[in-house]
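**User:**
Everyone, produce one record:

**Assistant:**
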Amino acid sequence: MNLYQLLQARAEAGRPVRVVLIGAGKFGAMFLAQARLMTGLHVMGIADLNVERARETCRRTGWEDERFSAHSASEAVRSGATWITDDASALIAAEGVDVVLECTGHPAAGIRHCLEAIDAGRHVVMVNVEADVVAGPLLARRARQAGVVYSLAYGDQPAVICEHVDWARACGFKVVSAGKGTRYHPDFHASTPETVWENFGISPEMAARGGMNPKMYNSFIDGTKSGIEMTAVCNATGLTPQPNGLSFPPASCYDLAEICKPRAAGGQLSHEGTTEVVSSLNRDRTPVEHHLQIGTYVVVEAESDYVRNCIEEFKFLPDSSFRFSALYRPTHLIGLELGISIASIALRGEATGAPTGFRSDVVATAKRDLAAGEILDGEGGFCVWGRQMPAERSLEIGGLPLGLAQGVKLKVAKMQGEALCWNDVELDENDIAVRIRREMERAFAPETEQATAAIK
């Protein structure tokens, strides 16, 4: 509860927390809008493949030109200004960096930058959740071994959900389920960048005004981003995915405890201690009243009559039995809240959520019938969407991680809804993302099998 005081102390001592931002897209822009107002923080550098676009992003988010006038990392440290470059590796290696913010959204780039940061002794905020679900458990382990912190990004839903889970457990509650809301309909699994705005419920004009990337936003609507984010939550909290992945039941904020509890207790989930994403649309596409489309939640269980009575007396968003109760947050502020992760890591040495095991995976799944020879176009594209799956099941079938389904050739035909496997595509085994993922599977397979056996 005292992060601001700690930041103030760093500012007064003339030792601001120095961060570098890799990737000045939408999330990065939202961070920059608030970073200029944060006490005790110095954005030492920004790396983006398009330097001029990064400069325009700074201007658009309220920065004066003199604030990003440095021409080198050393000048940035001396002057307090920001160096903008296209050389991410040089920025990561620069003297004085405390925290690296990886915001590219590209799995291979994110893994490479993270490894460079760990080798350089930098803390890492992995905004790039796509990279986290490909290899996060191994990256977090390497960071711990190197004495630095690897963290999910506060403001993004996985870290906010991790906070819910931590709050519940610290209060002594059993966590029944945790997750978020989204706009979902079963037909959306086939959504493409050409149909995304209609499915998303916004106009093309609004999308253009916001500079929204149709491929990226399509990953939210086709179910992929939900699978990615709930996988990050499982791997960070110890919750385990449902055997068939997410089912996206429609639910209002007031129905969470009734719906997001096990079927054995009258709910819709396979077991206690899992993740689920609730839809803001009913199956007939009418809106759910009081929906949770951009919010997060946790459902807990009362383990005594006294606590059940309290839940009933105070109306703590209960189910009909008062055995289960929900807590929700209606919104998350995305990059506007990233300062919480930075301060927590740099000043407390605490991650705002980090992988502790390999419990869940996201497997590429055919959006339509795919022909041999097609080139897959990855997350949010025309070919595949990402389905959450227990890690043991993914390893058993040799499931192709969604993050590796970009720019690779399909060797065999696949039917709509069918999972893709490693052997179905032509992969470069020397690619850093492929190598690190293979290493992670070897390292965590025994733990994954033991954890699944314990659950059974």
Summary: DSSP finds 17 helices and 15 strands in the chain. The two ends are 39 Å apart (CA to CA). The chain has a mean pLDDT of 96. Residues 375 and 409 are 4 Å apart (CA to CA).
